[in-house]
User: What shape does this take?
Amino acid sequence: MTADKSADKKPIKKDRPTPKRKDAQAARNISALSPGASRADKKRLREINKSRRLAARAAYMRGDENALPARDKGPARRFVRNYVDARRSIGEYFLVLIIIVLFMSAIPVKQIQVLSIAMIYSSIIYSGIDGFFLSLKIKKLVRERFPNEPTRGLGLYAWLRSTQMRRLRAPAPQRKPGDNVID
Assistant: This one.
């Protein structure tokens, strides 16, 4: 009896051949984001997105408050940026100093090599001390000007900004060195 039941089951035949793998994968690879979009539509969309990104980047570099990320937003952060940008520090010349030290250390004169190492270590120490006192000064000024603003992280924010080269700072500096920020 059991043999009869298994003998009754015949495989069902397909009325089409099995598709090739590349054809089956190509049929599945329809973009869920833009199904059926033509190349011209995709190119136009890329251009629109690129112009939006460029506009957002320009607004960020100008310092527009609505274009800034959370780490740069707020009146206290703006004050810190302006305060740091209005002063000069050795930290902003650190990269140039490293290049000079690199060339000096390649000279096979022992005294010049020792001088270059002394220059780099002294600039690191001076930059650290300057950052420490800058942090204290920034926190004091922010507490006076913005009593409701938290001062946590502002010192490190100011010190890290002061160690960047002026032209590489983002958002771009809005004060020139020597400007009076404390009115």
